[in-house]
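FAQ

Q: What does a record look like?
A: Structure on top, sequence underneath. For example:
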């Protein structure tokens, strides 16, 4: 019987099977990259807010302590977002006519809270507690980056499980945090201060 297919088709079919493997691998790789990219994690992406509140001005410039506004960060899982009253403490006297602050005054007059858009937002099934991390000496900027230089807030880390685990692997319970902090200098920037004006050293030798 005559050959239906020419011999060369053998090569072609082998090549196309091989090629398909590469294409599948390529697609999987691309999906993994997209899953980790800012496109999905929003890392580094500024979120719109009802008021152009600047951490750079208030923390970097004025030196207000993080805990003045994020009052529960050392004692509970939730860091806390300041109520309008905290802003009015100063803004009843400073910048009282600024248009930028009208939403703040309006919120104070009406008693309706400002609705800030969440920046760092873990899925609900993840259990995260600020107080344990703060009490173990992990500085705010290890996780949140150079907040005192952020005119508008963005999330610094991916907040993906890989990120939690990366640190937990080297900082396993019982290990001294100082050991893991110095073993990974690039991944864990030295903490600066909670209040840039009053720098202190905690027992890990970090500033915050
Ligand atoms: C004068 C008050 C004030 C001070 C001081 C302050 N913050 Fe904030 N912070 C806010 C307000 C208001 C928001 C919500 C608006 C926004 O996201 O920018 C916020 C948001 C944040 C967020 C994002 C919250 C989210 O939705 O995920 C982080 C992280 C944060 N602050 C960290 C810090 C750190 C770290 C410091 C100290 C270095 C600090 N803040 C000092 C008022 C303050
Ligand atoms: C301890 C006093 C203090 C507190 C508390 C405070 N501010 Fe301010 N704020 C200032 C001062 C001082 C300026 C002027 C900063 C400058 O021009 O350097 C300012 C400026 C601003 C501006 C103008 C834009 C800018 O960043 O220069 C906005 C908007 C603002 N504050 C919003 C807020 C909000 C919202 C809160 C509450 C979450 C708040 N502030 C809490 C002192 C305060
Ligand atoms: C170990 C990493 C880590 C450290 C250290 C850390 N944070 Fe956070 N922070 C997070 C994560 C993760 C979230 C998102 C929590 C969520 O979605 O439930 C968050 C959320 C926040 C929020 C939004 C409100 C909330 O509690 O969900 C604020 C404000 C905040 N952090 C401020 C601070 C301040 C101020 C410090 C230092 C005193 C600090 N954080 C230290 C990881 C950290
Ligand atoms: C920069 C390092 C770092 C990052 C990032 C980090 N952690 Fe931690 N975590 C620690 C340290 C240090 C401890 C305290 C461990 C000890 O000494 O017991 C801790 C403890 C914990 C504990 C308590 C464990 C216990 O012993 O009860 C939980 C839960 C936790 N982390 C969840 C998270 C989650 C969820 C994330 C990510 C969203 C995260 N952590 C990110 C450093 C980190």
């Amino acid at each position: 019987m005559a050959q239906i297919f020419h011999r060369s088709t053998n090569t072609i079919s082998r090549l196309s099977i091989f090629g398909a493997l590469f294409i599948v691998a390529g697609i999987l790789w691309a999906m993994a990259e997209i899953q980790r990219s800012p496109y999905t994690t929003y890392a580094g992406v500024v979120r719109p807010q009802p008021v152009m509140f600047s951490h750079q001005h208030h923390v970097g410039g004025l030196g207000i302590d993080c805990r003045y506004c994020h009052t529960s960060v050392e004692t509970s899982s939730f860091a806390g977002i300041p109520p309008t009253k905290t802003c009015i403490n100063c803004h009843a006297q400073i910048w009282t006519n600024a248009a930028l602050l009208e939403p703040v005054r309006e919120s104070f007059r009406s008693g309706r809270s400002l609705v800030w858009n969440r920046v760092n937002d873990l899925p609900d099934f993840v259990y995260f507690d600020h107080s344990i991390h703060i009490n173990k000496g992990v500085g705010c900027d290890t996780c949140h980056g150079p907040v005192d230089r952020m005119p508008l807030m963005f999330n610094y880390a991916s907040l993906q499980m890989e990120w939690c685990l990366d640190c937990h692997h080297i900082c396993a319970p019982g290990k001294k945090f100082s050991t893991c902090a110095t073993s990974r200098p690039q991944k864990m920037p030295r903490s600066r201060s909670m209040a840039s004006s009053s720098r202190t050293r905690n027992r890990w030798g970090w500033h915050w």
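Q: Is there anything notable about this one?
A: Residues 182-208 have pLDDT under 50 and may be disordered.
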